[in-house]
Amino acid sequence: MVISPPANPHIRPADKVASGVEADVEAVGRIDAVKSVLRVLTQTTGLRLAVVARVTPESWTCCAVLDEMNFGLRVGDTLVVATTFCNTVRNLAGPLLVNHASEDPRFKDHPAPKMYGIESYVAVPLYRRTGEFFGVMCALDANPASVSEDKLEVFRHLGDLVGHQLEQQETLSERDSQLLGAREASLLREQLMGIVSHDLRNPLNAISLAAATLMRRTDLDDRARRGLRRILDSSDRANRLILDLLDFTHVRTGMVLPVNPKPVDLHELTQQVVDEVQLTAQGRTLDLVCDGDARGAWDPDRIAQVLTNLITNAVQYSPAQSHILVEARGEAREVVLSVTNAGAVIPESQMPSLFEPMTRGTTEGSERRSVGLGLFIVNQIARAHGGHVDVVSTAEAGTTFRVHLPRG
Q: Gene3D superfamilies, alphabetically (predicted)?
């Protein structure tokens, strides 16, 4: 078998990794949350490469990686530790933020921008619960960036979460088990939900409130209003991501997704969601068809979450000039909500895993950096109501997602 060389000649493929470091790489690989954490880092910073690295005075080893800029780094690959920004983090024993390395007096002569072409970098050190230094969690990019200092706080909390899970993996290895016990799962759930619900939502709410307050001023020009509108739209997307992450954590830790059914008319609810999405998708055409009796007992907030996820996905993955069809049809025993778009056909091979977390049906629109939880959450909400979701995707008819909701 021929192994292709890495994209960067300074990357050394894994061959003889030290036994202790190899065990650490394997331990990180067993932590399910790491993939989600790295996706959150790229979403939060806009940087395209996120890494968890084991860093010692002698070595730098990749333990987990999310590479959206084709840097060529793989799990187990090594770098000369002195050539990395991560070595600086190890020496500082603290976080590091570099937005434009080649123009930063501290780093313009550093090997990282010269050897690897890295211009932007943000990282925090990782520690085991004993206080022992493990390595670095970082996000980086070949392009300069404008990451603000407040993003380091998000990194710190997520770094604490990964460090805690490393400790748990060592304990589990000693027990010859890879399953989290009830106590460990509960602690992980509480930590992650605390990070997401408090440390991320509160700043976002403050940003949204400030932007909405400024929008009410009468002395703003069109350029200022467009800028504020972008801030509000970005905050809304981030809040939706947070809600999806909370629900994902709920389900993956063995809890039932909570629903609160009450009498509702899904025709009225669908019209409301379409109107709300239309405000943020200006220039797109959303056609709504309501038919039959759509009254029943469902959780209106959850059903609105389903519709918002499906319609925003349709907006994201369909051509700008195409129409999006939203339907709410009342049938004898159920109401069927459907969203149809004219985007790229979802390959048949991806259908079985389409509703799994961290999955996309197509790579088009990936510049929006979705975490890939939307369809997973849609499916979980439908199941919580005793229903199900199906999808049909053809070149002739487009892609249609149907949510079947039995009348409560």
A: 1.10.287.130, 3.30.450.40, Histidine kinase-like ATPase, C-terminal domain (3.30.565.10)
